[in-house]
């Protein structure tokens, strides 16, 4: 197999793989969203694709083309949808897209469809779309299964203590912060400009949302916490924790044979 990524393999190799009893496809999802002045708009999509690729090699899966657009960025998790560069989908569109793509993979014969989320705001809409896809497949007589997860849910407490020795403040303010920046420094260092990191205190967020959005409620940088302590070494700790735990969980849940795909 020349690659685990669908867009890089031929139809014959693809068909041969789908015929396996444990054929599994991972659909990485992200967003086109600002991540401050030091990182590109495609962070969420790039990270979910890279993680999906490494997990796929571990469990013998293939990776679908990444969803590069996600649900609207929210002030309390992504800085807000008003930010320049953030280009979003509405709920109905995202639900429909994931439903149709997942249903198509199931109809082609995939036994397992895994949706790997890389953008916080996507989750509930991915859930709805995947639920509808599986319901339709069951009605058609399919025995396909599906899993939905976000990669950060596999970062264990020990890793958090190593990555955030000064104390972990929570996932809700990690937008553009140490976690994402460290992973990008590891996986796409050429796209990170650490000299442009804005070092400011963590955002003080309310426990509710206000409409219309008020840009003054979130830091002007677009990040919800500082990335000054981000390093590629911390990115490696995060990547190792996620790929190991996620791969093991999927292998157990889906009864995979763990036949790793040999990439030419």
From TrEMBL:
It comes from the Bacteria. This is Creatininase. GO terms for biological process: creatine biosynthetic process; creatinine catabolic process; riboflavin biosynthetic process. Keywords: Hydrolase, Metal-binding, Zinc. Belongs to the creatininase superfamily. The keyword Metal-binding applies. SUPFAM superfamilies: Creatininase (SSF102215). NCBIfam families: creatininase. It holds the Pfam family Creatininase. The keyword Zinc applies. Gene3D superfamilies: Creatininase. Its cofactor is Zn(2+). GO terms for molecular function: creatininase activity; hydrolase activity, acting on carbon-nitrogen (but not peptide) bonds, in linear amides; metal ion binding.
């Amino acid at each position: 197999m020349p690659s685990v990524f669908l867009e890089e393999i031929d139809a014959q190799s693809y068909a041969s793989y789908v015929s396996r009893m444990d054929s599994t496809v991972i659909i990485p999802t992200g967003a086109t969203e600002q991540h401050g002045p030091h990182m590109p708009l495609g962070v969420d999509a790039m990270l979910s694709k890279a993680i999906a690729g490494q997990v796929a090699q571990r469990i013998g899966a293939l990776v679908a083309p990444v969803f590069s657009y996600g649900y609207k960025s929210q002030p309390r998790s992504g800085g807000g949808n008003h930010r320049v560069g953030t280009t979003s989908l509405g709920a109905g569109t995202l639900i429909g897209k994931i439903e149709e793509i997942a249903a198509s993979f199931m109809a082609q014969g995939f036994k397992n469809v895994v949706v790997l989320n890389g953008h916080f705001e996507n989750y509930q809409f991915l859930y709805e779309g995947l639920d509808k896809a599986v319901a339709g497949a069951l009605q058609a007589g399919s025995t396909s299964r599906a899993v939905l997860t976000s990669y950060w849910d596999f970062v264990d407490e020990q890793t958090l203590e190593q990555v955030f020795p000064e104390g972990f403040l929570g996932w809700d303010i990690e937008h553009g912060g140490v976690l994402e920046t460290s992973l990008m420094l590891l996986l796409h260092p050429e796209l990170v400009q650490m000299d442009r990191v804005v070092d400011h205190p963590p955002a003080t967020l309310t426990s509710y949302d206000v409409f219309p959005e008020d840009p003054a409620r979130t830091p002007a940088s677009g990040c919800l916490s500082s990335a000054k302590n981000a390093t590629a070494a911390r990115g490696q700790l995060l990547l190792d924790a996620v790929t190991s735990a996620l791969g093991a969980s999927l292998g157990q849940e889906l009864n995979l044979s763990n036949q790793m795909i040999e990439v030419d």
